[in-house]
């Protein structure tokens, strides 16, 4: 179930005792939890069954009682009720987009994919990225969330006393009808819009052919006759799911190449407005380089995150929560009438990388083609086995080129030490 | 002259309010509505909200019967009101679905002088780990801790204690035992987890009160407890609950024996004249003998490894059905005592790869200098490697 995190809440409609403390339960879906979207109407009152062992010290299950399905039960139920749509396949030289229900939750998601990466974005859940992986890999992204917080909430951050005036993560975004059918092109920029606290908010997802970068840009416009000055400071939150591994395998590497390994235990706990405790292990010095990389040591998978350096206040990494998290905080902004706020993030899976002095060089292999990515505050030419190539800008601080064969060494001009391709 | 002029007790009992529709938190709006209605029906108490929880604030009670009656009445009435809002109160120390800790805070008093309260505070320190063990009610779903709430020091709302010096010490909010004088004439135990029933809340409350009064009256002068023993005993209590072993005055003793032979006798003596019925601490004695707490009851219902949302939902169902944890405690099997886990074992457990020393300080209740010494010893034994980061900060890698 790619991109599914919710659990179903169900009412027991029938009970059959099996052996020992096992029961077969007939269930009716009543609600969902751990999801910013409400349960889809097609799932309400839908019927399902499950087998469960109840503790001998707990009361026997009875008709009318509520039980919460765990992740496996939820996935099984959803898949049975409405089988998920398979990802479409892009041909060489194209990007494919399709709006369909890819995780059986009743809501349509936007799929964008090329011959390098697959991505799923959920408009109903604040335009969050639910899935991103290079072809043939598991991917590290569990979900991304863009929180729009006002300055009042920021000042109450420590104790959660104040609540945000609005939250982009809870907004229901709408795609243009023309974007819903399966389409093939060499590049897509697909916007989705919502009105959040009276502000026209647009999240545009974009992908190019033969390039492993998914870009997500946020634009907030303060237009209209009754527009008033507003304060805001959106954050971009990225949760990781190291499938088959643990959070301790994740290392956040800053633009100077320093790995940030954190203990299991927190040293700073923060009560957030969502009424959840977060244990942030501290700031990552992202400096002015505008990127950060997360490396999964046991599988070698890497996710490169690029952002607009001038607009970011701080980057926090959290390995203590259920899912490891990275938060990128934009600087607080005062948005006057007829003004707009823009923020862009780009994500790119990699197979190998080298980071030094605020720059990165990395690569992703897909079907024998090597996608070469560089990151840093300014464009530098990429040197592939001695040959200098001028890359194309594909994200706020990301640059890209590709070659059809396996290189031996890749580097950047300006004295960057070469990365040997394994 | 008596240190406690009049024996009084009050509790601030935090309870989760879970929805019968979702099994999870019912949410702030409904909690506020439940509080508002409960206040009307319980005008002699202060019912309030604390971080997505309902908090039953009993006020000062002056006899055991008053304490017991008010605790039971408050729980019953709040639950009746919650039922009107399609919700149920769940009394365990941690709601896994949203990582929300809930405490059963107990105010023992009444002190009329700062010095008396302070002396009693210091005397109570060696007994705090036993109270944590007995009150543990929230096992971690990975099976590592009997009180996941206290593993996180209740998210910095019940931090490890230090003995207070009468001349130079300042009392701080948010420690295992808080010295409230003169704002309140009490010593507040914050380290106890919320309890799943009024019977258990009353039992833990009375035991703490009895200890405070008993220690206040039977001891004289300023006491300097062994902070190393307290810290390691606290960690053992958090990990192993009533199966834990402690070190008291250099000798290993089980939490069970400590409660039965030291804590309960002092508490019985302390509660003379408070109207405690015949056979006090029957329940605490059973728990100590069997080496169990409410945490073991929760584990019996929600086994290790359960999905946290499923676990929260199942506990909501169990509390809705009104299952009595005391009945389970009385019929449960005795558990075995677990060997004492030494401080260096805790330090090793807190170290990963290049762990900043600040993280080890934050994770463990030990004094910093003591952790540094343990780290040096472990480095000599080649169990850890001490490193310096780019800002010369100390980091530790486990070997």
Describe this structure in words.
The complex is a heterodimer of chains A (422) and B (399). Chain A is 4% helix and 48% strand. Chain A is mainly beta and 422 residues long. In chain A, the strands form eight sheets. A nine-stranded antiparallel sheet of chain A has the order 10-12-13-14-27-23-22-17-18, with no helix packed on it. Chain A has a five-stranded antiparallel sheet with strand order 8-7-6-5-11, with no helix packed on it. In chain A, strands 9-16-25-24-21 form a five-stranded antiparallel sheet, with no helix packed on it. In chain A, a hairpin with a 6-residue loop joins strand 35 and strand 36. Chain A is globular, with a radius of gyration of 23 Å. Residues 149-164 and 263-281 of chain A have low confidence and may be disordered. Chain B is an alpha+beta fold. Helices cover 45% and strands 17% of the residues of chain B. Chain B has 16 helices and 14 strands. In chain B, strands 1, 2, 3, 4, 7, 8 and 9 form a seven-stranded antiparallel sheet that branches. Chain B has a three-stranded antiparallel sheet with strand order 12-14-13. In chain B, helix 4 (128-135) runs parallel beside helix 8. The longest helix of chain B is centred in the N-terminal third of the chain and has 21 residues, at 64-84. The termini of chain B are far apart. Chain A binds chain B through residues 7, 9, 30-31, 33-34, 55, 57-59, 65-71, 73, 160, 248, 258-259, 261-267, 269, 271, 275-277, 281, 322, and chain B through 20-25, 28, 51-52, 97-100, 152, 155-156, 297, 300-303, 306-310, 312-314, 316-318, 320-321, 323, 328, 350-356, 358-363, 390.
């Amino acid at each position: 179930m790619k991109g599914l995190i919710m659990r179903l809440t169900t009412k027991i409609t029938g009970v059959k005792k099996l052996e020992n403390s096992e029961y077969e339960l007939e269930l009716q879906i009543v609600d969902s939890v751990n999801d910013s979207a409400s349960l889809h109407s097609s799932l309400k009152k839908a019927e399902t069954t499950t087998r469960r062992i109840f503790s001998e010290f707990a009361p026997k299950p009875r008709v009318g009682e509520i039980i919460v399905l765990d992740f496996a039960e939820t996935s099984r139920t959803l898949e049975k009720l409405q089988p998920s749509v398979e990802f479409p396949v892009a041909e060489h030289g194209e990007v494919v987009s399709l709006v369909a229900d890819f995780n059986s939750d009743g809501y349509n998601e936007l799929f964008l994919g090329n011959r390098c990466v697959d991505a799923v974005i959920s408009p109903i859940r604040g335009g969050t990225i639910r899935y991103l992986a290079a072809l043939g890999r598991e991917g590290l992204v569990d979900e991304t969330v863009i929180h729009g917080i006002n300055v009042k909430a920021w000042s109450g951050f420590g104790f959660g006393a104040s609540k945000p005036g609005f939250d982009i993560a809870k907004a229901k975004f709408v795609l243009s009808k023309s974007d819903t059918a399966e389409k093939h092109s060499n590049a897509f920029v697909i916007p989705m819009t919502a009105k959040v606290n009276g502000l026209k908010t647009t999240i545009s997802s974009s992908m190019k052919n033969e390039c492993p970068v998914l870009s997500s840009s946020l634009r907030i416009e303060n237009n209209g006759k009754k527009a008033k000055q507003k304060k805001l400071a959106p954050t971009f939150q990225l949760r990781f799911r190291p499938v088959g591994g643990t959070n301790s395998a994740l290392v956040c590497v800053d633009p100077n190449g320093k790995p940030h390994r954190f203990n299991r235990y927190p040293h700073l706990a923060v009560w957030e407005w969502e009424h959840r405790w977060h244990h942030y292990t501290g700031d990552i010095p992202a400096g002015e380089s505008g990127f950060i990389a997360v490396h999964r040591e046991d599988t070698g998978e890497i996710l490169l995150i690029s952002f607009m350096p001038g607009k970011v206040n701080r980057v926090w990494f959290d390995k203590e929560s259920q899912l490891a998290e990275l938060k990128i905080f934009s600087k607080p902004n005062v948005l006057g009438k007829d003004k707009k706020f823009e923020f862009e993030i780009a994500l790119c899976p990699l197979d190998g990388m080298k980071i030094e002095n605020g720059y990165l060089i990395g690569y992703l292999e897909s079907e024998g083609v090597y996608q070469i990515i560089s990151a840093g505050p300014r464009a530098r030419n990429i040197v592939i086995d001695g040959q200098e190539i001028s890359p194309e800008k594909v994200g706020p601080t990301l640059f890209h080129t590709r070659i059809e064969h396996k290189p031996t060494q890749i580097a950047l001009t300006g004295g960057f030490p070469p990365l040997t391709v394994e | 002259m008596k240190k406690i002029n009049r024996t009084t007790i009050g509790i601030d009992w935090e309870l989760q309010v879970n929805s019968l529709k979702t099994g999870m938190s019912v949410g702030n709006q409904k909690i506020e509505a439940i509080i508002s209605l409960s206040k009307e029906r319980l005008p002699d108490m202060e019912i309030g909200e604390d971080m997505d929880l309902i908090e039953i604030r009993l006020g000062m009670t002056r006899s055991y019967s008053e304490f017991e009656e008010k605790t039971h009445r408050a729980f019953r009435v709040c639950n009746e009101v919650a039922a009107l809002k399609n919700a149920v109160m769940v009394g365990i120390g941690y709601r896994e679905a949203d990582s929300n800790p809930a405490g059963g805070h107990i105010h023992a008093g009444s002190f009329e002088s700062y010095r008396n309260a302070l002396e009693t505070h210091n005397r109570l320190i060696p007994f705090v780990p036993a109270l944590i063990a007995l009150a543990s009610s929230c096992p971690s779903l990975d099976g590592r801790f009997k009180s996941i709430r206290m593993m996180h020091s209740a998210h910095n709302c019940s931090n490890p204690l230090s003995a207070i010096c009468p001349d130079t010490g300042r009392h701080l909010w948010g420690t295992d035992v808080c010295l409230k004088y003169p704002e309140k004439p009490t010593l507040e135990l914050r380290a106890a987890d919320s309890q799943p029933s009024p019977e258990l809340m009353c039992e833990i409350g009375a035991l703490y009160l009895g200890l405070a009064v008993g220690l206040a009256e039977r001891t004289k002068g300023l006491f300097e407890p062994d902070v190393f023993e307290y810290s390691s005993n606290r960690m053992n209590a958090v990990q192993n609950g009533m199966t834990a072993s402690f070190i008291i005055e250099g000798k290993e003793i089980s939490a069970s024996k400590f409660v039965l032979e030291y804590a309960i006798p002092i508490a019985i003596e302390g509660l003379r004249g408070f109207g405690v019925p015949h056979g006090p601490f029957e329940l605490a004695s059973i728990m100590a003998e069997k080496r169990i707490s409410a945490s073991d009851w929760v584990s019996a219902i929600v086994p290790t490894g359960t999905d946290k949302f499923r676990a929260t939902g199942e506990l909501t169902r169990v509390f809705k059905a009104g299952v009595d944890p005391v009945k389970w405690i009385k019929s449960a099997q005795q558990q075995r005592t677990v060997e004492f886990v030494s401080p260096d074992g805790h330090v090793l457990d807190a170290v990963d790869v290049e762990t900043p020393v600040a993280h080890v300080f934050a994770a463990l209740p030990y004094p910093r200098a003591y952790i540094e010494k343990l780290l040096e010893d472990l480095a000599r034994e080649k169990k850890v490697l001490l490193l310096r980061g780019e800002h010369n900060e100390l980091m530790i890698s486990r070997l």
